[in-house]
Structure formats: C-alpha cells, structure tokens
Amino acid sequence: MAGGAAAVAALLLSGCASGGPDAGSTKPGHAAPQTLTVYAATSLTATFDKLGDAFEKANPGVTVRFTYNGTSTLVTQLSQGAPADVLASADEKNMANAVGQKLIAGTPVDFATNVLEIATAPGNPKDITGWADLAKAGVKVDVCADGVPCGNATRAVEKATGTHLAPISEEQNVGDVLAKVESGDADAGVVYVTDVRSAGSKVTGVPFPEARQAVNTYPIAATSSSKNAALAKRFITYVTGDEGQKLLADAGFGAPPK
C-alpha cells in the first residue's frame, strides 16, 4: 500500500511540474484575461475611451487597447502587418480600401455619422461666421490632408461651394488640426462637430450649413489577421448596440444610415 501511495504522489507532482490540465487556469468565476486591440479614427478618441471602459466592465478579464490616428494612416499600418483586431473608420472610402487589400474579415457595419464644424480660438476673435470666412485674407486656417476622412470631407465642401481654402498646413488627423487652433498657430480649423464638443472651452465651434454636403459614415469591422475573432465580434456588437449608440449620440455623432 505504501508503494502505491508513493506512486500516486509522484504522479500528482509530475502533473503539476509539467503544467497539467489545470495549469494556468483562472479561479472559478473569473474569465481568462484577453486583450482586444482596436484601431480607430482620431475623431472617436473621447467616445471610444468611454465605450472601452464600459465594455471592459461588461466583460470581466477583457482589456481594450486603442490606437487612434487618421484612418488612412491606420489602414497603411494594417497593410504593413500591424496587429489589430478591429478597425473603426471615419469614412467608407478608407474602409473600402482595407477591404480591397483583404485586411478585413466579413462585412463592415456602419455605426455612426459625422459632419464638419469650424473650430476657432475661444471667443472667436476673428469673428468667423461661416465657411466663406475661411477663405478671407488674414485668416489662418488649418485642415486635414487629402486621403484623411476629414480632409476628403473638406475637399467635398470646397467643391460643392466653389470656395478654395489656402491652409497654413494639412494634418494627418483632426487631433492635429485642433492642436493648431488651441496653440494659436491657426485662427480656425476644419474638424468634426464631435471634436468641437470634446474640446470644450479650448475652442469655439462655428457650425455651417454647407457641412451637409459631406456627411461621413463610420463603418467598423474585424480585421482578417485578428486572433480574437469572437471578442472582436462582441465589441462590434457592443458599439452597434443600445449602449454603444447612446454613448455615440451623447458625443454628438449621428445615427448610422438605415
């Protein structure tokens, strides 16, 4: 009997040392840790930070890591092998580019819309009242570059109105445009309604009706390289569900097209 007990003990010790079936498992009632990497347009920063916190609370053990930039930059990074599970784009054109490069799994889902707004220094010292004022002499305006969703929307408004802007520079995302306005390097910047709202007292917003000429639709999708496909799908469902849509609406985003 003593020999049998010793053999059983040896087997148990061996199982522990070699990482048996329970090695690395979490305690009962605790989910295994998971990390979801989300690439998202800069204009989503404040809203997705809140949404990520809410998603983590609803999914114990999950950590959401965001990388924010202009969508065109994010697509380039994905094409170069950058690891991400989800792409949230500020326009359909760049998402279509990602789909064309086979960087996306499944069909993208529209989850929000957004329109442009002018951001000025607090109090609007240059007395900018609308789009045409951005083309006046002495007004230093900053915009997004071509290819970036906010830049594409700006060009669409220029074309629709026949107004040509002469920006002091062209940025790769709306965050950089806001920074130029907040620092005083620019008198005005063309960003989104949601960016003006999230900036608070740092800028003054000037809406303009011509912005309806370039409504941006925001699609979201899992990447084809994701190793967390089920979790990516769960996050997308959360963004497009009631709680995600409420957070987006509270930030000033419009509802996705029907």
TrEMBL record:
UniProt entry tagged with the keyword Electron transport: no
Signal peptide: 1-19
One Pfam family in the UniProt entry: SBP_bac_11
Domain of life: Bacteria
Keywords: Metal-binding, Signal
Family: Belongs to the bacterial solute-binding protein ModA family.
Classification via NCBIfam families: modA
Full protein name: Molybdate ABC transporter substrate-binding protein
